[in-house]
Amino acid sequence: MGRAILDYFQNENPEDLQTETSISELDELPVDYLFRDFDEMNKIEQKALELSNGKVLDIGAGAGSHSLYLQNERKLDVTALDISPNSIEVCQLRGIQKTVTQNMLEFSGETYDTILLLMNGTGIFQSLNVIDIYLKKLHSLLNKNGQILIDSTDILYMFDTDDDGGVLIPANGYYGELDYIVHYKNESEDPIKWLYLDFNTLQNAALNNDFKVEMILQDEDSYLARLIKK
């Protein structure tokens, strides 16, 4: 994905990304979708950016569109963090002043008033088996009363139903734990674990890690939640 972002920004014959999961077929993701401005973003993203305050950490910044809006339009002190060097190079070329190329679990040294995890931000947690590791890390990166603004989608709708209306979900594990694969220019990344969470499951995990939780906005099966450090 980082290579596609860099190709698009430098106009080096970019192609659409292709994504698939363990329960869905190949789907096209136009790279320009990652370069939208505020007016083109969905309601969940817009609301999260409006609620951001203070010193902000944008985790999984990608092409940097959220960070750029907060820095230039909201005049906030924002840091864009992504594991992809190509993505962070584009963030820098677009004028984002503070950037970090690192896995969030290895990042330390500063604390923030707002942490953003957007565009199905719970995916970074990978699995319910390790969600506590991520939530504890996020807790440590927040100032007192700091907030995490995070979105996800309850993907229960993607599963078949039986004649009685019951949903046919896998017997083992949580139904939101998927393998996620990205293809670009005839190359494929290794599958990564990606976690889609229903709100109640996110809420229970967050409460167990010393957060207060509230639903901010729901848009069909997707939602924006706020986790506040106790």
What would your notes on this structure say?
With 230 residues, the chain is of the alpha/beta class. It has helices at residues 2-10, 43-51, 65-72, 85-93, 131-140, 199-207; strands at residues 17-21, 24-29, 55-59, 77-82, 98-101, 112-117, 142-153, 177-184, 187-188, 192-195, 211-219, 222-229. The strands form 2 sheets. It has a 7-stranded mixed beta sheet, with helices on both faces. The longest helix is centred in the middle third of the chain and has 10 residues, at 131-140. The model has no long low-confidence stretch (mean pLDDT 94).
Layout of secondary structure:
Layout: H1 2-10, E1 17-21, E2 24-29, H2 43-51, E3 55-59, H3 65-72, E4 77-82, H4 85-93, E5 98-101, E6 112-117, H5 131-140, E7 142-153, E8 177-184, E9 187-188, E10 192-195, H6 199-207, E11 211-219, E12 222-229
Helix pairs in contact: 1-4
Any key phrases for this structure?
5-stranded antiparallel beta sheet; 7-stranded mixed beta sheet; 6 helices; 230 residues; alpha/beta; 12 strands; single chain
The backbone outline, from C-alpha atoms, is globular
User: Order of SSEs, N→C?
Assistant: HEEHEHEHEEHEEEEHEE
Query: Which structural class best describes the helix and strand composition?
Result: alpha/beta
The largest beta-sheet arranges its strands as: 5-4-3-6-7-12-11
pLDDT < 50 runs, ≥5 residues: none
Radius of gyration: 18 Å
Alpha plus pi helix count? 6
Instruction: Round the mean pLDDT to the nearest integer and report it.
Output: 94
Distance between the termini: 35 Å
Number of strands: 12
Binned strand content: 25-35%
